[in-house]
Amino acid sequence: MAFRWKNDLTHADVTPENAWLNRRQILAGAAGLGIGAIAGPVMASDGLEPNTLEEITSYNNFYEFGTDKGDPKRYAGALTTEPWSIEIDGMVDRPGTYDVTEIMEQMTIEERIYRFRCVEAWSMVIPWNGFELADLLALAGVQDRARYVAFETLYRPDEMRGQRFPIIEWPYVEGLRMDEALHPLTIMATGIYGKPLPNQNGAPIRVVVPWKYGFKSIKSVVKITLTDDEPPASWNRLQPREYGFYSNVNPNVDHPRWSQATERKIGGGLFSKRIPTLMFNGYEEEVARLYEGMDLTRYF
Ligand code: MTE
Predict the structure, then answer these.
(1) Do 57 and 72 contact (CB within 8 A), yes or no?
(2) Contacts of 225 (CB under 8 A, 6+ apart)
(3) The whole model's pTM is what?
(4) Which one has a higher pLDDT value, 271 or 106?
(5) HSE-up of 16 (CA within 13 Å, CB side)?
(6) For 59-94, how does the pLDDT look when each residue is reduced to its tens digit (9 = 90+)?
(7) Cα(234) to centroid of ligand 1, in Å?
(8) In sequence order, which ranges of the chain are alpha helices (DSSP H)?
(9) Of residues 181, 164, 21, the one with CA closest to residue 88
(10) Which of 44, 64, 144, 183 has the highest local Cβ count within 10 Å?
């Protein structure tokens, strides 16, 4: 599925272009790495610079491994990511257990350089590799009566040490409305910078919804259920006044305890200037129509 969106992000400034192209070519021929073929050239553009791989992989939220930003990098190595499968059930024509390697063989892996905005008001720019969630759902066959998609992360306290503590109700769960899930910006990410997804970023496969706060982008997914009922979402369940089901990035709707008008881009140094947060995280043109007529202060 070829979808072109207004891409104003580039990594030409952080990775010398030749090195990057070589790596892409090598990876495209390296089936053993399990990331499939990489499609399309990187779109050149002006604007923001992606974060470095080091930044993207060392400042993380992945409470299954602890609540400190460095815990995922420190402890996620314990997670076994192979073999890995996703159970897809509910309102689909072909429910079943889908092996991730087999899924990826059927998908064209694209690069998507997206803004990533955490509800905590920090942000990054991340060059993901992945495929559209819509393509995965098409494998299972979406039934007409399905209105929402529910996601679940792995529960494996032996390997995910944070799950031994009741930080949230495990497993981590999230959900999207069907039109959000089928939107071409919504992807299943399987890599970053052309390398397989690091464990701390949600290996081997995670959701990325770039116009919503980061917690909607659930990591290490093992279950997807299509339903006609709004599914539970971990942070919403824990603190519904602070974290709505929709959680679209919105500079005009503050978190009860802090402003969402600006953000701090990771990597700019401690004293870097905050930058304005953009409506729908900069993807307004692509997604605003999904919410036409909705009161976004009520459905936050
Ligand atoms: N998914 C799971 N399973 N567990 C988590 O704790 N944290 C969320 C989201 N997905 C989280 C998760 C939050 S709060 C953010 S900001 C992003 O993952 C962080 O993604 P990153 O570490 O790849 O930047």
Answers:
(1) no
(2) 88, 89, 90, 149, 150, 152, 231
(3) 0.88
(4) 106
(5) 3
(6) 999 999 999 999 999 999 999 999 999 999 999 999
(7) 11
(8) 17-28, 53-58, 71-75, 100-106, 133-140, 178-182, 234-238, 284-287
(9) 181
(10) 64
pLDDT band for 3, please (50, 70, 90 cuts). Answer: low
Looking at residue 271, its amino acid is: F
Q: Ligand 1 atom 11: the closest Cα is on which residue? A: 62
Q: How far is the CA of 13 from the centre of ligand 1 (A)?
A: 26
Here the tokens at position 21 are 């192209």
Residue nearest to atom 14 of ligand 1 (CA): 215
Protein residue with its CA nearest to atom 24 in ligand 1: 60
Task: State the distance from the centre of ligand 1 to the C-alpha of 29, rounded, in angstroms.
Answer: 30
pLDDT(28) > 50: no
Q: How far apart are CA 103 and CA 98, in angstroms?
A: 7
Give all domains of the chain, ordered by start, each with its CATH number: 11-291 (3.90.420.10)
Q: How far is CA 79 from the centre of its chain?
A: 19
What radius of gyration do the chain's Cα atoms show? 18
Give the tokens for residue 160: 């995910």
Name the DSSP letter for residue 279.
G
Look at the block and give the residue holding tokens 């076994």: 80
